[in-house]
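Supplementary Methods. Inverse-folding protocol.

Structures were first reduced to a C-alpha cell string of length 105. This string, shown here, constituted the complete conditioning input.
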C-alpha cells in the first residue's frame, strides 16, 4: 500500500517531499484511550514495532465513476470488530473472541 516515489512526487511539492506521508490518506488507524480499553490493551507497543490487525468491516458505500480522465472506484468500510495481536500470533483465541464474541478452538 506504500506509495511509490513517482506517485509521491506527483502529489507533493519538492520542498515537503521528505516529510510527506509514505502511505495514502485513510490507511492509518488511530486508537484512543477508550478504544484501547475496549480492546483490553494494557501495554502500548513499541514505536516502529509490528502488530497484527484483524478486523471485520461493514461495506457502507461503493461507487464507480468514468470520466475523460479515466475510471475511478471507491469502497468505504466501517470497522465493526477489531483485534490487535503480537505479530508472532501469541494470542490466537483473542482474534476469535473479538470477531465472533467468544473464543473458538
Amino acid at each position: 500500500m506504500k506509495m511509490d516515489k513517482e506517485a509521491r512526487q506527483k502529489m507533493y511539492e519538492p520542498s515537503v517531499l521528505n516529510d510527506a506521508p509514505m502511505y495514502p490518506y485513510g490507511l492509518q488507524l488511530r486508537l484512543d484511550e477508550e478504544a484501547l480499553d475496549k480492546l483490553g490493551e494494557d501495554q502500548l507497543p513499541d514505536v516502529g514495532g509490528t502488530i497484527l490487525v484483524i478486523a471485520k468491516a461493514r461495506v457502507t458505500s461503493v461507487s464507480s465513476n468514468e470520466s475523460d480522465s479515466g475510471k475511478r472506484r471507491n469502497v468505504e468500510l466501517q470497522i465493526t470488530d477489531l483485534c490487535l495481536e503480537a505479530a508472532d500470533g501469541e494470542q490466537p483465541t483473542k482474534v476469535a473472541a473479538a470477531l465472533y464474541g467468544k473464543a473458538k478452538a
